[in-house]
Protein backbone atom coordinates (compact mmCIF):
# COMPACT_ATOMS: atom_id res chain seq x y z
CA UNK A 1 0.00 0.00 0.00
CA UNK A 2 1.31 3.46 -0.88
CA UNK A 3 1.92 6.02 1.86
CA UNK A 4 2.44 9.75 1.76
CA UNK A 5 3.58 12.62 3.92
CA UNK A 6 1.02 15.34 3.33
CA UNK A 7 1.85 18.95 4.18
CA UNK A 8 -1.25 20.80 5.37
CA UNK A 9 -0.30 24.47 5.14
CA UNK A 10 -1.99 27.14 7.20
CA UNK A 11 -3.95 29.67 5.20
CA UNK A 12 -3.00 33.12 6.51
CA UNK A 13 -5.99 34.85 8.09
CA UNK A 14 -7.48 38.26 7.19
CA UNK A 15 -6.16 39.92 10.38
CA UNK A 16 -2.48 39.15 9.77
CA UNK A 17 -0.66 41.91 11.66
CA UNK A 18 2.61 42.66 13.39
CA UNK A 19 1.60 42.90 17.01
CA UNK A 20 4.98 41.83 18.43
CA UNK A 21 3.18 39.44 20.77
CA UNK A 22 5.69 36.60 20.97
CA UNK A 23 8.37 37.19 23.62
CA UNK A 24 11.36 35.04 22.70
CA UNK A 25 10.65 35.26 18.96
CA UNK A 26 13.22 37.77 17.68
CA UNK A 27 11.50 38.49 14.36
CA UNK A 28 8.09 38.97 15.96
CA UNK A 29 9.42 41.49 18.46
CA UNK A 30 11.73 43.41 16.12
CA UNK A 31 9.00 44.02 13.51
CA UNK A 32 6.32 45.05 15.98
CA UNK A 33 4.02 47.89 14.95
CA UNK A 34 4.93 47.78 11.26
CA UNK A 35 2.11 47.76 8.73
CA UNK A 36 1.33 44.27 7.44
CA UNK A 37 -0.20 43.13 4.16
CA UNK A 38 -2.67 40.30 4.84
CA UNK A 39 -3.45 39.82 1.15
CA UNK A 40 0.20 39.45 0.19
CA UNK A 41 0.82 37.12 3.14
CA UNK A 42 -2.00 34.78 2.13
CA UNK A 43 -0.98 34.81 -1.53
CA UNK A 44 2.66 34.04 -0.65
CA UNK A 45 1.50 31.02 1.35
CA UNK A 46 -0.77 29.83 -1.45
CA UNK A 47 2.05 30.14 -3.97
CA UNK A 48 4.20 27.82 -1.84
CA UNK A 49 1.35 25.31 -1.62
CA UNK A 50 0.83 25.37 -5.39
CA UNK A 51 4.55 24.98 -6.07
CA UNK A 52 4.75 21.85 -3.93
CA UNK A 53 1.61 20.47 -5.58
CA UNK A 54 3.14 21.14 -9.00
CA UNK A 55 6.27 19.24 -7.93
CA UNK A 56 4.13 16.17 -7.24
CA UNK A 57 3.76 16.40 -3.47
CA UNK A 58 0.34 15.89 -1.89
CA UNK A 59 -0.59 19.26 -0.40
CA UNK A 60 -3.45 20.28 1.88
CA UNK A 61 -4.90 23.46 3.37
CA UNK A 62 -5.73 24.24 7.01
CA UNK A 63 -8.21 27.07 7.56
CA UNK A 64 -7.44 30.13 9.74
CA UNK A 65 -9.28 31.18 12.89
CA UNK A 66 -12.02 33.73 13.45
CA UNK A 67 -10.45 37.01 14.52
CA UNK A 68 -10.89 39.17 16.46
CA UNK A 69 -11.89 36.61 19.06
CA UNK A 70 -14.83 38.44 20.58
CA UNK A 71 -15.64 35.57 22.94
CA UNK A 72 -12.16 35.84 24.48
CA UNK A 73 -12.69 39.57 25.02
CA UNK A 74 -16.10 38.93 26.58
CA UNK A 75 -14.51 36.45 28.98
CA UNK A 76 -12.21 39.28 30.10
CA UNK A 77 -15.09 41.58 31.02
CA UNK A 78 -15.93 43.53 27.86
CA UNK A 79 -19.67 43.56 27.18
CA UNK A 80 -22.29 44.84 24.75
CA UNK A 81 -22.67 44.13 21.08
CA UNK A 82 -19.71 42.72 19.18
CA UNK A 83 -18.89 46.20 17.90
CA UNK A 84 -19.08 47.63 21.42
CA UNK A 85 -16.80 44.90 22.75
CA UNK A 86 -14.17 45.81 20.16
CA UNK A 87 -14.53 49.54 20.76
CA UNK A 88 -14.26 49.16 24.56
CA UNK A 89 -11.23 46.87 24.29
CA UNK A 90 -9.52 49.34 21.93
CA UNK A 91 -10.14 52.20 24.37
CA UNK A 92 -9.40 50.42 27.65
CA UNK A 93 -6.94 47.61 26.84
CA UNK A 94 -5.49 47.81 23.35
CA UNK A 95 -2.94 45.02 23.98
CA UNK A 96 -5.83 42.61 24.63
CA UNK A 97 -7.51 43.62 21.39
CA UNK A 98 -4.26 43.12 19.50
CA UNK A 99 -3.90 39.66 21.05
CA UNK A 100 -7.49 38.75 20.15
CA UNK A 101 -6.77 39.74 16.52
CA UNK A 102 -3.60 37.68 16.13
CA UNK A 103 -3.42 35.58 12.97
CA UNK A 104 -0.79 33.29 14.52
CA UNK A 105 -2.84 30.19 13.73
CA UNK A 106 -1.26 30.50 10.24
CA UNK A 107 1.72 28.67 11.76
CA UNK A 108 0.05 25.29 11.89
CA UNK A 109 3.22 23.51 12.95
CA UNK A 110 1.90 24.57 16.37
CA UNK A 111 -1.65 23.37 15.73
CA UNK A 112 -1.22 19.79 16.95
CA UNK A 113 1.04 16.78 17.31
CA UNK A 114 0.27 13.99 14.84
CA UNK A 115 1.24 10.31 15.10
CA UNK A 116 0.75 8.07 12.04
CA UNK A 117 -1.17 4.82 12.28
CA UNK A 118 1.99 2.73 11.87
CA UNK A 119 3.21 4.01 15.25
CA UNK A 120 0.05 3.90 17.37
CA UNK A 121 -1.35 1.08 19.46
CA UNK A 122 -4.81 1.13 17.83
CA UNK A 123 -3.61 1.59 14.24
CA UNK A 124 -5.25 4.98 13.75
CA UNK A 125 -3.76 8.40 13.03
CA UNK A 126 -3.80 10.38 16.29
CA UNK A 127 -4.09 14.16 16.70
CA UNK A 128 -3.61 16.16 19.91
CA UNK A 129 -4.34 19.86 19.61
CA UNK A 130 -1.61 21.97 21.24
CA UNK A 131 -2.66 24.09 24.22
CA UNK A 132 -0.07 26.82 23.41
CA UNK A 133 -0.60 28.15 26.91
CA UNK A 134 2.69 30.06 27.05
CA UNK A 135 1.15 32.99 25.13
CA UNK A 136 -2.40 34.30 25.59
CA UNK A 137 -2.89 35.10 21.91
CA UNK A 138 -2.12 31.48 21.02
CA UNK A 139 -3.80 29.80 23.99
CA UNK A 140 -7.22 30.76 22.56
CA UNK A 141 -6.64 28.78 19.35
CA UNK A 142 -7.09 25.13 20.31
CA UNK A 143 -10.92 24.88 20.51
CA UNK A 144 -11.30 26.01 16.89
CA UNK A 145 -8.21 24.04 15.86
CA UNK A 146 -9.83 20.89 17.22
CA UNK A 147 -13.05 21.54 15.30
CA UNK A 148 -11.21 22.25 12.05
CA UNK A 149 -9.03 19.13 12.38
CA UNK A 150 -12.13 17.11 13.24
CA UNK A 151 -13.83 18.33 10.05
CA UNK A 152 -10.75 17.49 7.97
CA UNK A 153 -10.07 14.07 9.48
CA UNK A 154 -13.57 12.97 10.40
CA UNK A 155 -13.63 9.19 9.89
CA UNK A 156 -13.27 7.55 13.34
CA UNK A 157 -12.17 4.30 11.71
CA UNK A 158 -8.94 6.00 10.64
CA UNK A 159 -8.54 9.06 12.87
CA UNK A 160 -8.51 9.73 16.63
CA UNK A 161 -8.64 13.21 18.14
CA UNK A 162 -7.55 14.24 21.64
CA UNK A 163 -8.33 17.45 23.46
CA UNK A 164 -5.52 19.82 24.32
CA UNK A 165 -3.56 19.04 27.48
CA UNK A 166 -4.42 20.94 30.69
CA UNK A 167 -3.70 24.62 30.09
CA UNK A 168 -1.13 25.04 32.84
CA UNK A 169 2.58 25.78 32.65
CA UNK A 170 3.56 22.24 33.65
CA UNK A 171 2.00 20.88 30.45
CA UNK A 172 3.01 23.59 28.00
CA UNK A 173 2.58 22.02 24.55
CA UNK A 174 3.58 23.74 21.31
CA UNK A 175 2.65 20.93 18.93
CA UNK A 176 4.63 19.62 15.98
CA UNK A 177 7.14 22.50 16.12
CA UNK A 178 8.89 20.36 18.77
CA UNK A 179 8.16 16.99 17.20
CA UNK A 180 9.35 15.11 14.16
CA UNK A 181 9.30 11.53 12.98
CA UNK A 182 11.94 9.31 11.44
CA UNK A 183 11.18 6.21 9.40
CA UNK A 184 12.32 4.11 6.46
CA UNK A 185 9.04 4.82 4.66
CA UNK A 186 5.98 6.78 5.77
CA UNK A 187 3.78 3.70 6.04
CA UNK A 188 6.18 1.75 8.28
CA UNK A 189 6.67 2.01 12.02
CA UNK A 190 9.05 4.83 12.85
CA UNK A 191 10.59 6.67 15.78
CA UNK A 192 8.93 9.86 17.02
CA UNK A 193 11.31 12.52 18.27
CA UNK A 194 9.99 14.85 21.00
CA UNK A 195 12.14 17.86 21.90
CA UNK A 196 11.40 19.79 25.10
CA UNK A 197 12.80 22.95 26.65
CA UNK A 198 12.46 22.09 30.32
CA UNK A 199 11.04 19.69 32.86
CA UNK A 200 8.16 21.00 34.94
CA UNK A 201 8.75 18.74 37.93
CA UNK A 202 12.42 17.72 37.90
CA UNK A 203 14.74 20.59 38.89
CA UNK A 204 17.82 18.68 37.78
CA UNK A 205 17.12 19.72 34.20
CA UNK A 206 18.70 23.06 33.21
CA UNK A 207 16.43 25.84 31.93
CA UNK A 208 16.94 29.00 29.88
CA UNK A 209 17.44 32.25 31.79
CA UNK A 210 16.23 34.92 29.34
CA UNK A 211 13.35 33.49 27.31
CA UNK A 212 10.71 30.90 28.28
CA UNK A 213 11.04 27.22 27.43
CA UNK A 214 7.59 26.65 25.98
CA UNK A 215 7.56 22.84 25.66
CA UNK A 216 7.81 20.67 28.76
CA UNK A 217 9.02 17.10 28.99
CA UNK A 218 5.82 16.20 30.81
CA UNK A 219 3.66 17.49 27.94
CA UNK A 220 5.64 15.48 25.39
CA UNK A 221 5.34 12.35 27.52
CA UNK A 222 1.59 12.86 27.90
CA UNK A 223 1.09 13.19 24.14
CA UNK A 224 3.09 10.01 23.56
CA UNK A 225 0.86 8.16 26.04
CA UNK A 226 -2.35 9.53 24.50
CA UNK A 227 -1.22 8.37 21.06
CA UNK A 228 -0.37 4.88 22.28
CA UNK A 229 3.29 5.05 21.28
CA UNK A 230 5.68 2.33 22.42
CA UNK A 231 8.91 3.00 24.32
CA UNK A 232 10.78 1.54 21.36
CA UNK A 233 9.23 4.15 19.10
CA UNK A 234 9.99 7.39 20.97
CA UNK A 235 13.02 9.48 21.84
CA UNK A 236 12.83 12.48 24.18
CA UNK A 237 15.58 15.08 23.92
CA UNK A 238 16.18 18.39 25.67
CA UNK A 239 16.78 21.49 23.63
CA UNK A 240 19.91 23.43 24.54
CA UNK A 241 18.77 26.20 26.94
CA UNK A 242 21.49 28.50 25.63
CA UNK A 243 19.96 28.56 22.13
CA UNK A 244 16.49 29.23 23.52
CA UNK A 245 18.00 32.35 25.06
CA UNK A 246 19.28 33.29 21.59
CA UNK A 247 15.79 33.22 20.09
CA UNK A 248 15.30 29.53 19.29
CA UNK A 249 11.80 29.40 20.73
CA UNK A 250 10.93 26.04 19.09
CA UNK A 251 13.05 23.11 18.01
CA UNK A 252 12.07 23.70 14.38
CA UNK A 253 14.14 26.89 14.43
CA UNK A 254 17.33 24.85 15.03
CA UNK A 255 16.63 21.38 13.55
CA UNK A 256 14.45 19.63 10.97
CA UNK A 257 14.05 15.94 10.21
CA UNK A 258 12.46 13.73 7.57
CA UNK A 259 12.68 10.08 6.62
CA UNK A 260 15.97 8.79 7.94
CA UNK A 261 17.69 12.19 8.11
CA UNK A 262 18.12 14.78 10.89
CA UNK A 263 19.46 18.19 9.79
CA UNK A 264 20.50 20.14 12.87
CA UNK A 265 22.80 22.80 14.27
CA UNK A 266 25.75 21.80 16.42
CA UNK A 267 24.23 23.58 19.42
CA UNK A 268 20.65 22.35 19.01
CA UNK A 269 20.48 19.80 21.83
CA UNK A 270 21.88 18.95 25.22
CA UNK A 271 23.80 15.66 25.26
CA UNK A 272 23.86 15.53 21.45
CA UNK A 273 25.95 12.36 21.19
CA UNK A 274 23.55 10.47 23.43
CA UNK A 275 20.50 11.77 21.50
CA UNK A 276 21.95 10.73 18.14
CA UNK A 277 22.98 7.33 19.48
CA UNK A 278 19.47 6.65 20.80
CA UNK A 279 17.89 7.69 17.52
CA UNK A 280 20.32 5.51 15.59
CA UNK A 281 19.70 2.47 17.78
CA UNK A 282 15.92 2.67 17.78
CA UNK A 283 15.70 3.33 14.06
CA UNK A 284 18.12 0.51 13.32
CA UNK A 285 15.83 -1.81 15.28
CA UNK A 286 13.03 -0.79 12.90
CA UNK A 287 15.10 -1.45 9.82
CA UNK A 288 15.97 2.19 9.11
CA UNK A 289 19.41 3.68 8.50
CA UNK A 290 19.51 6.89 10.52
CA UNK A 291 21.87 9.66 9.43
CA UNK A 292 22.44 13.22 10.59
CA UNK A 293 23.85 16.38 9.09
CA UNK A 294 25.34 18.62 11.78
CA UNK A 295 25.90 22.26 10.83
CA UNK A 296 29.00 23.52 12.68
CA UNK A 297 28.73 26.77 14.62
CA UNK A 298 31.89 28.08 12.96
CA UNK A 299 30.11 27.90 9.58
CA UNK A 300 26.65 29.06 10.65
CA UNK A 301 26.28 30.81 13.99
CA UNK A 302 23.04 30.42 15.96
CA UNK A 303 22.33 34.09 15.30
CA UNK A 304 22.52 33.50 11.54
CA UNK A 305 20.30 30.42 11.84
CA UNK A 306 17.67 32.45 13.72
CA UNK A 307 17.77 35.42 11.36
CA UNK A 308 17.64 33.31 8.19
CA UNK A 309 15.44 30.48 9.51
CA UNK A 310 17.77 27.99 7.86
CA UNK A 311 16.37 25.12 9.94
CA UNK A 312 12.76 26.28 9.76
CA UNK A 313 12.81 24.72 6.32
CA UNK A 314 10.88 21.88 4.76
CA UNK A 315 12.85 18.71 4.13
CA UNK A 316 10.94 16.70 1.53
CA UNK A 317 11.58 13.23 0.09
CA UNK A 318 11.48 12.84 -3.66
CA UNK A 319 10.56 9.70 -5.55
CA UNK A 320 14.21 9.04 -6.46
CA UNK A 321 15.22 8.99 -2.79
CA UNK A 322 16.89 12.40 -2.79
CA UNK A 323 15.75 15.24 -0.57
CA UNK A 324 14.64 18.77 -1.37
CA UNK A 325 15.11 21.63 1.10
CA UNK A 326 12.56 24.46 0.96
CA UNK A 327 14.02 27.65 2.49
CA UNK A 328 12.92 31.30 2.78
CA UNK A 329 14.50 34.10 0.73
CA UNK A 330 16.29 35.23 3.90
CA UNK A 331 18.63 32.23 3.56
CA UNK A 332 19.85 33.47 0.18
CA UNK A 333 20.27 36.98 1.61
CA UNK A 334 22.61 35.74 4.36
CA UNK A 335 26.08 35.14 2.81
CA UNK A 336 27.22 32.61 5.42
CA UNK A 337 24.00 30.58 5.27
CA UNK A 338 23.86 30.64 1.48
CA UNK A 339 27.50 29.56 1.21
CA UNK A 340 26.76 26.66 3.54
CA UNK A 341 23.72 25.61 1.49
CA UNK A 342 25.74 25.66 -1.72
CA UNK A 343 28.34 23.39 -0.16
CA UNK A 344 25.59 21.14 1.19
CA UNK A 345 24.05 20.44 -2.21
CA UNK A 346 27.47 20.03 -3.83
CA UNK A 347 28.61 17.46 -1.28
CA UNK A 348 26.81 14.51 -2.85
CA UNK A 349 24.81 13.92 0.32
CA UNK A 350 21.07 13.27 0.69
CA UNK A 351 20.02 16.93 0.18
CA UNK A 352 20.33 17.38 -3.57
CA UNK A 353 18.54 20.69 -4.12
CA UNK A 354 17.50 23.86 -2.33
CA UNK A 355 14.46 25.88 -3.45
CA UNK A 356 13.88 29.42 -2.24
CA UNK A 357 10.49 31.00 -1.53
CA UNK A 358 9.50 34.56 -0.72
CA UNK A 359 7.60 34.37 2.55
CA UNK A 360 8.50 37.83 3.83
CA UNK A 361 5.11 38.56 5.41
CA UNK A 362 5.33 35.41 7.53
CA UNK A 363 9.06 35.74 8.19
CA UNK A 364 8.69 39.28 9.55
CA UNK A 365 6.33 37.91 12.17
CA UNK A 366 8.62 35.01 13.06
CA UNK A 367 7.53 32.05 10.94
CA UNK A 368 9.25 30.34 8.02
CA UNK A 369 8.30 27.51 5.63
CA UNK A 370 8.19 24.83 8.33
CA UNK A 371 6.01 26.94 10.63
CA UNK A 372 3.37 27.14 7.93
CA UNK A 373 2.79 23.41 7.62
CA UNK A 374 1.53 20.46 9.66
CA UNK A 375 2.89 17.13 8.44
CA UNK A 376 0.54 14.14 8.39
CA UNK A 377 1.81 10.75 7.23
CA UNK A 378 -1.07 8.83 5.65
CA UNK A 379 -1.56 5.46 4.02
CA UNK A 380 -3.50 5.36 0.77
CA UNK A 381 -6.74 4.33 2.46
CA UNK A 382 -6.35 7.06 5.08
CA UNK A 383 -5.72 9.73 2.47
CA UNK A 384 -8.91 8.62 0.75
CA UNK A 385 -10.76 9.20 4.05
CA UNK A 386 -9.56 12.82 4.40
CA UNK A 387 -12.11 15.52 3.60
CA UNK A 388 -11.34 16.04 -0.13
CA UNK A 389 -12.21 19.72 0.09
CA UNK A 390 -8.93 20.50 1.87
CA UNK A 391 -6.60 18.80 -0.63
CA UNK A 392 -4.93 21.28 -2.97
CA UNK A 393 -5.76 21.07 -6.66
CA UNK A 394 -5.28 23.59 -9.50
CA UNK A 395 -8.97 24.44 -9.24
CA UNK A 396 -8.81 24.96 -5.46
CA UNK A 397 -5.72 27.13 -5.82
CA UNK A 398 -7.56 29.36 -8.28
CA UNK A 399 -10.63 29.55 -6.05
CA UNK A 400 -8.61 30.43 -2.94
CA UNK A 401 -6.60 33.04 -4.80
CA UNK A 402 -9.79 34.75 -5.93
CA UNK A 403 -11.21 34.43 -2.40
CA UNK A 404 -8.15 36.16 -0.90
CA UNK A 405 -8.20 38.94 -3.49
CA UNK A 406 -11.89 39.51 -2.77
CA UNK A 407 -11.84 39.56 1.03
CA UNK A 408 -8.38 40.58 2.27
CA UNK A 409 -7.02 44.05 2.93
CA UNK A 410 -3.66 45.00 1.46
CA UNK A 411 -2.56 46.95 4.55
CA UNK A 412 -3.28 46.55 8.24
CA UNK A 413 -1.99 48.64 11.14
CA UNK A 414 -2.67 48.33 14.85
CA UNK A 415 -5.20 51.18 14.71
CA UNK A 416 -7.19 49.29 12.07
CA UNK A 417 -7.89 46.48 14.55
CA UNK A 418 -10.29 48.79 16.39
CA UNK A 419 -12.56 48.95 13.33
CA UNK A 420 -15.62 46.71 13.97
CA UNK A 421 -15.94 46.35 10.20
CA UNK A 422 -12.85 44.13 10.26
CA UNK A 423 -14.76 41.50 12.24
CA UNK A 424 -17.59 41.54 9.68
CA UNK A 425 -15.09 41.21 6.84
CA UNK A 426 -13.43 38.28 8.55
CA UNK A 427 -16.69 36.46 9.26
CA UNK A 428 -17.95 36.96 5.71
CA UNK A 429 -14.70 35.56 4.32
CA UNK A 430 -14.60 32.58 6.69
CA UNK A 431 -18.23 31.69 6.07
CA UNK A 432 -17.44 31.43 2.38
CA UNK A 433 -14.22 29.55 3.08
CA UNK A 434 -15.98 26.79 5.03
CA UNK A 435 -18.12 26.20 1.97
CA UNK A 436 -15.09 26.14 -0.34
CA UNK A 437 -13.25 23.65 1.89
CA UNK A 438 -16.42 21.70 2.78
CA UNK A 439 -15.77 22.05 6.52
CA UNK A 440 -19.28 22.70 7.78
CA UNK A 441 -19.80 24.89 10.85
CA UNK A 442 -16.46 25.17 12.68
CA UNK A 443 -16.35 28.83 13.76
CA UNK A 444 -18.06 30.25 16.87
CA UNK A 445 -20.14 32.70 14.82
CA UNK A 446 -21.49 29.77 12.78
CA UNK A 447 -22.28 27.67 15.83
CA UNK A 448 -23.65 30.15 18.38
Return the average pLDDT rounded to an integer: 94
Give the total of beta strands. 15
Q: If strands are numbered along the chain, what order do they take across the biggest sheet?
A: 2-1-15
Q: What's the multimeric state? A: single chain
| CATH A-level architecture | 5-stranded Propeller
Number of helices: 18
Determine the fraction of residues in helical runs and give it as a percent range. Answer: 25-40%
Distance between the termini: 43 Å
The number of domains is 1
The major pleated sheet works out as: 3 strands, mixed
Q: Which CATH class is shown? A: Alpha Beta
**Rg result:** 21 Å
Strand content: 15-25%
Q: Tell me the CATH superfamily.
A: Succinylarginine dihydrolase
Poorly predicted runs of 5 or more residues: 22-29
* CATH fold descriptor: L-arginine/glycine Amidinotransferase, Chain A
Class from secondary-structure proportions: alpha/beta
Shape designation = globular
Task: Provide structural commentary.
This protein has helices at 26-30, 38-54, 70-75, 82-92, 94-100, 136-139, 142-152, 217-226, 241-244, 272-285, 302-308, 329-333, 335-346, 360-363, 380-385, 394-407, 420-436, 444-447; strands at 3-10, 59-62, 112-115, 125-129, 159-162, 179-182, 191-196, 234-238, 255-258, 261-265, 291-295, 314-317, 323-328, 351-357, 373-379. It has a three-stranded mixed β-sheet with strand order 2-1-15, sandwiched between helices. It has a three-stranded mixed β-sheet with strand order 3-4-5, with helices on one face. A three-stranded mixed β-sheet has the order 6-7-8, sandwiched between helices. The protein has 18 helices and 15 strands. Helix 8 (217-226) links the parallel strand 7 (191-196) and strand 8. It is globular. It has a single domain (3-67, 102-447), classed as L-arginine/glycine Amidinotransferase, Chain A (5-stranded Propeller), CATH 3.75.10. With 448 residues, the chain is of the alpha/beta class. Residues 22-29 have low confidence and may be disordered. The N and C termini lie far apart (43 Å). The longest helix has 17 residues, at 38-54. 35% of the residues lie in helices and 17% in strands.
Amino acid sequence: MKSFEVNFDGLVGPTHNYGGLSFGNVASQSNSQQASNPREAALQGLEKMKALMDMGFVQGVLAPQERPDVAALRSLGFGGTDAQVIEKAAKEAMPLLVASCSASSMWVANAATVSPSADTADGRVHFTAANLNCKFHRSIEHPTTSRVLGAMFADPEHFAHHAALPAVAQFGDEGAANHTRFCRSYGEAGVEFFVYGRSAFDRRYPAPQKYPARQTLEASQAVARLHGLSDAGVVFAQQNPAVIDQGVFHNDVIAVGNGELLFHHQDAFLNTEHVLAELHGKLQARGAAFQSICVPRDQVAVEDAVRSYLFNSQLLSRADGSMLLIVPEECRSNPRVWQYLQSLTASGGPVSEVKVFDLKQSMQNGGGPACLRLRVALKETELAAVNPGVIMTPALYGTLTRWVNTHYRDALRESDLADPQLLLECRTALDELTQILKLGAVYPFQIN
